[in-house]
Amino acid sequence: MASGTFADAGADLELVGIQKRFPGFTAIEHLDLSIPAGSFFALLGPSGCGKTTTLRLVAGLEEPTAGSILIGGTDVTQQKAFQRPVNTVFQSYALFPHMTVLENVAFGLRRRKIADPVGKAHEALRLVELDHLAARKPQQLSGGQQQRVALARAIVNKPALLLLDEPLGALDLKLRRQMQLELKTIQEEVGLTFLHVTHDQEEAMTMADTIAVMNKGRIEQMGAPEVLYELPKTAFVANFLGQSNLFTGPVIGSTSTSITVDVAGHRVIVPADRAHRHAGEVTIGVRPEKMWLHRKAPAEAADRNIMGPGRVIDVSFSGVSTQYLVAVPYIGTLIVFAQNMAFGPVADVGDEVWLDWHVEHGFGLEDEPVPGAGPRFAADTDTRSIAAQRRESLVTELEEA
Question: Where is the signal peptide (predicted)?
């Protein structure tokens, strides 16, 4: 690939007190966000959480009801989309079908009368390893290749900030995983600031340096992928970023290094530095892959939590692992992931089993899950509408040319 000198360094992005209201509902309640220059930042959340609205605000496709947007320290809140140092890569790519790959990448440079548009387009294509297909039309390329062309077209303009609007959603699983690694590599080489908006947890954890998990118009938790996964602060983060077994009960003992929680008669120990609350009614949890399944009651040990007996109610084979659903009286249904080390399941439906896990793998939340809580805001605009607007804009530019 090309050297890291290809593009200028990215700029930092800062959102200050952002609020966005539409007639009848609020998409973003109050949002403060700071993204360092040159980072790969993922805004992760379910449909309706406000992430797409946030992207539209940064891109200049929407105006905030309140608050400011700063890129590289410059307030761009009142600037139109074309005035901002921002480019967007969409899920639908929006390539001109009648143009060659090279012409698609050079189009924006020619419109802006940038010197040597063809040379710069070739350089961008070399970066995404597609220069050998420069003479082809988009319909002659695979989905992954079209995605790379769209990325080259965005990067060639040297934006301070590159927005990725669920760009891999149209690809098959294997190609999507390959593109995740390639996007991360490209971002590191060109040094731009990437803001990736997605609902795919695995995609965000694979590529991003920092993830902000968004829910109902606000950020629930932000940090490095491994921190969010290992130490979620809220029930929403614990269950959205992977799966979790959560338990609620009173703290019945504590030391300088741990707390002990009574979970329906089971004494469960959690390290103090992995728990956000140390007294009163608390919610604690453990990830399914951290748990072990036993056909007999395991021996008591100071460094392990034991739960059971329970009854296996479902066994689901998924290749590298098997998922077990275990009903434990007075606690509920727990999930266990067991790596497939031998042929056949560890336990069958109807079997009596016990569960245990290392104390150091538990975590404690700041909040408690609220059963039956509904969505606070209505769903935001579908990401496809942004691509449609962008396509119309490009077609207009082409007709004018």
Answer: none
The DSSP call for residue 275 is B
Q: Contact 87/42 with Cβ under 8 angstroms?
A: no
pLDDT digits (tens, 9 = 90+) for 44-54: 999 889 998 99
Secondary-structure percent of the chain, ordered helix, strand, coil, rounded to 5: 30, 35, 40
Question: Cα 222 to chain center, whole Å?
Answer: 11
**Pick from 186, 116, 176, 175: which is nearest to 151 by CA?**
186
- Whether 43 shows a pLDDT value over 80: the answer reads yes
Question: 291 near 339, Cβ under 8 Å?
Answer: no
* Residues across the chain: 401
3-state secondary structure at position 211: strand
Inter-residue contact 163 to 89 (CB < 8 Å): yes
For 87-98, write each residue's pLDDT tens digit.
888 777 778 999
DSSP string, 70-115: EETTEE-TTS-GGGSSEEEEETT----TTS-HHHHHHHHHHHTT-S
Closest-CA residue to 123 (of 190, 187, 38) = 190
Per-residue pLDDT, 2: 38
Instruction: State pLDDT tens for residues 128-159.
Output: 889 999 999 999 998 888 888 988 888 888 88
The closest alpha carbon to 357, from 399, 393, 304, belongs to 304
Closest CA to 154 of 192, 208, 118, 180: 192
Tens of pLDDT along 199-212? Answer: 888 889 989 999 99
**Residue 179 is inside which H or E element, if any?**
helix 173-190
Task: Report the half-sphere exposure of 141 (CA within 13 A, side-chain side).
Answer: 26
Classify strands 161-165 and 193-198 as parallel, antiparallel or unpaired. parallel
Phi, psi torsion values for 105, nearest 5 degrees: -70, -35
Work out the number of other CB atoms within 10 angstroms of the CB of residue 189: 17
What is the Cα 58 distance to its own chain's centre?
18
Contacts of 69 (CB under 8 A, 6+ apart): 13, 14, 15, 16, 18, 57, 58, 75, 76, 77
- pTM over the 0.85 mark: no
